[in-house]
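Blinded run. Sample ID left blank on purpose so nobody reads anything into the name before looking at the predicted structure. Input follows.
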Amino acid sequence: MNNLLVEKQPQTFNRAWVRVNAPCVYRFIQKEIRIERGGIDWDRFTRALNRRFQKQWIGSLRKTAKPYRDKTEVDIVLKRYSSKLYTFITSANNDDEHIRDIISIVLVRIAQRGNIAAKQEIIKLLAFTIDDWIERNPKLSNWRGYDQVIQTRLDCCIRRYRYSGSFMRYVFKTLEYAAKGLTPLIAYSLDDSTHLGRRIYVEQVQSNV
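Blinded prediction complete.
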């Protein structure tokens, strides 16, 4: 597919372009690259492309979804990736970061369909990663103590994410740009209720690994 895109040089492309210009590839994708509850997993397809072409991909416009709650959809994802949930707490290498991005995108797409349980789960998981970013990266240090604002930002990221690339990179850049306008707060205690709850969740995740 990368070779075809180099040859054709489209400014943008989408699923219809693939169907017309690479029918064999489209048939393979239609048969083999599926999401759990039906339909083609276009995120998985675009992740395999050269990053240059990922930026040219145009996904389908999404209608405003009617909110619903289905924990079963979320549990399917969590069960499938249960041994990899630690990547939201700590990522040892690029492979960990890659699988973390895959899990996050799957949950985001379910949340975009209106599943409140999926949105709550991805926000909860991302909280661990963002805490680590804040501690390690000076560009995000101004976010320390702004937990509620971070949740609002994450909610926006989940709703607005369209680009089929790294969702984690999208979140990082969103927080990085917004951090410049924040006033640093006094460092919070690691013993407060928010972090206590997160530590309990960490222990639960680690116990399943």
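Unblinding after everyone has recorded impressions. The mean pLDDT is 83.
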